[in-house]
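Exercise 7. Predict the joint structure of the components listed below.
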Amino acid sequence: MLKSELIHSKILEVLARAGHHAKVLIADGNYPASTKRGPNAELVCLNLAPGIVNCTQVLRAILGVVPIDGVNTMMYEASDPYTLKEDPPVWDDYRKVIREAGLSLKLEPIPKWDFYKAVETPDHVLTIQTGDQQRFANILLSMGVRID
Amino acid sequence: MLKSELIHSKILEVLARAGHHAKVLIADGNYPASTKRGPNAELVCLNLAPGIVNCTQVLRAILGVVPIDGVNTMMYEASDPYTLKEDPPVWDDYRKVIREAGLSLKLEPIPKWDFYKAVETPDHVLTIQTGDQQRFANILLSMGVRID
Amino acid sequence: MLKSELIHSKILEVLARAGHHAKVLIADGNYPASTKRGPNAELVCLNLAPGIVNCTQVLRAILGVVPIDGVNTMMYEASDPYTLKEDPPVWDDYRKVIREAGLSLKLEPIPKWDFYKAVETPDHVLTIQTGDQQRFANILLSMGVRID
Amino acid sequence: MLKSELIHSKILEVLARAGHHAKVLIADGNYPASTKRGPNAELVCLNLAPGIVNCTQVLRAILGVVPIDGVNTMMYEASDPYTLKEDPPVWDDYRKVIREAGLSLKLEPIPKWDFYKAVETPDHVLTIQTGDQQRFANILLSMGVRID
Amino acid sequence: MLKSELIHSKILEVLARAGHHAKVLIADGNYPASTKRGPNAELVCLNLAPGIVNCTQVLRAILGVVPIDGVNTMMYEASDPYTLKEDPPVWDDYRKVIREAGLSLKLEPIPKWDFYKAVETPDHVLTIQTGDQQRFANILLSMGVRID
Amino acid sequence: MLKSELIHSKILEVLARAGHHAKVLIADGNYPASTKRGPNAELVCLNLAPGIVNCTQVLRAILGVVPIDGVNTMMYEASDPYTLKEDPPVWDDYRKVIREAGLSLKLEPIPKWDFYKAVETPDHVLTIQTGDQQRFANILLSMGVRID
Amino acid sequence: MLKSELIHSKILEVLARAGHHAKVLIADGNYPASTKRGPNAELVCLNLAPGIVNCTQVLRAILGVVPIDGVNTMMYEASDPYTLKEDPPVWDDYRKVIREAGLSLKLEPIPKWDFYKAVETPDHVLTIQTGDQQRFANILLSMGVRID
Amino acid sequence: MLKSELIHSKILEVLARAGHHAKVLIADGNYPASTKRGPNAELVCLNLAPGIVNCTQVLRAILGVVPIDGVNTMMYEASDPYTLKEDPPVWDDYRKVIREAGLSLKLEPIPKWDFYKAVETPDHVLTIQTGDQQRFANILLSMGVRID
Amino acid sequence: MLKSELIHSKILEVLARAGHHAKVLIADGNYPASTKRGPNAELVCLNLAPGIVNCTQVLRAILGVVPIDGVNTMMYEASDPYTLKEDPPVWDDYRKVIREAGLSLKLEPIPKWDFYKAVETPDHVLTIQTGDQQRFANILLSMGVRID
Amino acid sequence: MLKSELIHSKILEVLARAGHHAKVLIADGNYPASTKRGPNAELVCLNLAPGIVNCTQVLRAILGVVPIDGVNTMMYEASDPYTLKEDPPVWDDYRKVIREAGLSLKLEPIPKWDFYKAVETPDHVLTIQTGDQQRFANILLSMGVRID
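Solution:
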């Protein structure tokens, strides 16, 4: 067993080959993980059951191992049959986790269909499929540069 | 043996990686399963013999495991040498199965060559090839969102 | 997203091809998942971080989808440098989950090196690697027969 | 769509490369399809749902395309927790299908654990996994010689 | 050995996954089988020696197993260094085989470079490479619909 | 198109990597091609239809391209349900083809089950599956040494 | 060991699946074999050491097995830092080998960057990488038609 | 162990199949190795730990085995959040190594996003991922021609 | 770029799937990395050039990420043509690195041919091939248990 | 093009992963390259035509890149139909090449069937198939240790 906080074989393998500008998608349970993805992306399925694991757990683990310099969420839209009335509570959880990781990044929501487009690029390296049941919980990370 | 109603290994694997907007094609026996498909789709062959299995059996099984929010059938056309004079009886079977599944969805027929185009997209995740002998029995499902 | 309780793509795929007498190993974080396994087994890695996911969560999910008629745990041994003085608390969690699933099965501990041998057979179909930090939390399930 | 009675892609492919003495297993829903098999065997999963397809449907289809000169069933045993009190009704269905195919073969039951051994040989070319819910419905066919 | 007339493993496998509008190319010995093909096509090499097997033998075998509703040959052209002065005799053989199969289809020749284009489509499922020594013996079949 | 007599892609590939002591099996239509074979052997399927191609055609082609210094046939046995009363006529065809190739080799029959054992060795490089309908038409060749 | 002049396993395999219009590139030691190639081409590396093997040896071997009806060389250009002042001597070797093979073909040089384009087509089936040290020794062959 | 200076299995394999105009990227630790690459490129990961190995070590090794006739570095840009104020010191190390290798090549910096484009071509054969911690240490080599 | 000390993609992937009792071999430059290995082991080649990387660098990196509870070196033997007269100096480097990692483990040398046997077991998960030029620098690690 | 003497992609790749005790077979044209080999060995086919390349050329190239400390030839035997009366002349060529490489090794012949056994071990890493027409020209090398 690795002695680090993030101990998953495939996630570590993919992140270690990635670099600046690479995108990591933490997908909620309803995200179409096998179809909305970039041509270079790998898929890691951590969705054992509804709520296990959830996006917040994955976010915390990822922030511990790679530098991140951009964070996008998927914006709910009025025309969507599954839309929301206000920001999903989980976005505040994300803000808290980011703060606890010592980062001063803002969540930047982008419209649903643009969000898909942002994922479907050659920079997309990894989707982590969760069992998160909350709507619009998807979160897309951009990797930064390690300086030390 | 799984304790659920749908017990097929590959179908469950594909559906569990899919999500909102994914398309599932239940193909009749004459559908060109290996050529008219999307680039991300997998093919499951359940066509043992004519009529075994049929599209209605597959539809019932799929509706039991994933949320569906759109249903298309292939419209017969006057210019087609194998055309029909009226709706194929199996469409009523589909309506009945959908109703029994507690859904209020309508069958939406689309012209044959547009139907092929609707299948041949990146959203297409699965074709289930049946032995259904009825003409124009193809049916294309769109996955929705689980909310609970 | 599947509508069932267990929603993991690969676990469902493997269990759906398995049957009576097949063995499923839920491995704790220190189990040598890549080396102590049977020749037909597949490996699913759910070990995101220490404690996420844990063996109890996986046990509950598995009991929900397949019939089980045998449960073994790995017995701690005096000569082991990492031995315990008494049964690990997680075993009681397992008993509770089994009871809640409506089963009347007993946990049957087997000595550590015999446990490895019990895993390394052609009947072994699946190892689910968890991040469970508790020592001697490994648990081996035998599939039974569905009768209905 | 093929014009024959058996129209399944993979089953035809495997049978066409097989010959005298090859074994074909039609497995009921509880048979451990992924683990009790010979080293050269392929697996075709036709188990959509409980009872769909069943072993009798597959038997009829197979008898239509290759010569068979031996048929074994799995014998129930007193010591088995899932044993039966008398021959399962499906065996009579098998006898009827064999007769209708113009063959004069007898069903030859062999004890459960010997049955597994009979499957696990290099001669085993194919397992067809069904959703048949009946216990002890497994049936093992030996291919004969075409003479015409 | 299968009891049917067409007994080839790979040809049966490919045709069983194909359907309406699929194209099957029976290639003469000089056709560039590995390069002029569609992206979904498979290649079966039956060219043991010059004349063994020939296109007519393959045509007869194919017509026995799938419905065909279109037949094209490759038209010889004046500018071609290997051109012919009149229709190759094998075209009459094809007409005879088609008639004997109970079909009323006409051979429809298309110019050489258009013929290549007709092959190089996603609908192309299979090329059967023969050892036929006759020039312009290539023949392209379109699969139809089974109605019974 | 190659200018030689034997023009088959895979057969040439396999023979060109083989050498002294390698075994080539020309299998009749009922030989179990996928199961009775050596661990290094490849399978080439030339069985389009019954009688096409036959073993004699293949034998002639093989003798034209590699040196052969041993020839075995499969001996029919009294206890076999498909046995013969006298040598199959095809053996005389083989003798004629061998003579025409300028070789002075004798056919050496070996009992059926020993024949299978002779095939199932690491020296076995190739099985060519034919559609030959004659019983006991299998023929096993041993490659010799080219001296020039 | 094959009894023919060209005895290489992979070269024979590729040529046997090729046909009219297919391109074969014999590459000198400095040609970018892994990057300037067509999408269907295979690469055979015969470059043991500088000068072993050379392009002339390969040309002789290829002309012995397939019909060729076009031959291109790569033209040296004034602007190239590695340009030549006159035709490389090896071109005369090529002319001699072509004549000895009984062919009346001319060498047709094409400019370097057009030569790359001529290679990078779907018709390109094979690159044979040599250790030839001569500059501008690359030679591209077009396959013709066997007539006999 | 090879007797040469460069002893790495995969690097030698890739360079030996490459030729004139091929591109080799030596990537610093923050380069997105898995996503910014050409379609023909292979990836060799030598990044054990920060600073091990570094780009200068790799450059020296590569210059020892292949002719190089062009060298590009990635230019830092004012708008980049991780930009530099002056040339990174490692560029002087590169100049020294190039000189020591007996070459008179100049470093030619190209703007960051054009650098990515220069990498993402079919000519790109290899990325060697290092653990070099210096910013803007990426270096792209163009292979030349061996003349001797 | 990962923020940890060990940043290699494949090494992390393999160690994350390993566990108690797994063996990791750090091989010197002359170790037969492709042949003396266990059936489950993967090979990572970090041998860029003689001395780069060396075994001590790898040891330090490994000790940082997994718990180790056993360390073996390969003992030099009198009968070996490449034997040493005394312990190789690198062994003291290993002792120092182990101490710096806070471990109190001893180096346990085992005779050369027994060392190979200790590697060639199913517990062997990884060989890291270095360019270390020192003789008898091979070092074999046993993974322990993480307790926290 | 590499600047070294041995420039073959696959040979370099295999030798760079090999080490002390590894075996390299240089096979003459009649050696059964695909069947008499060890389980870890790779096959490189350099047999373009009879005599091209020959074993002596390969031996010279190999001796240039790796340390060798053992050389075996295959001894001709009286009972062999293709036996020789005296040592084949090529053995003297081998002695000369070994001397020119600065080595003082002796050729050690071993009986034919023992030679095959010496090849068929896990230490066998590579067979290079040549077109050498001389009988008993096979030569088996053992890799030694680089010391510098």
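Discussion. The longest helix of chain B spans residues 90-100.
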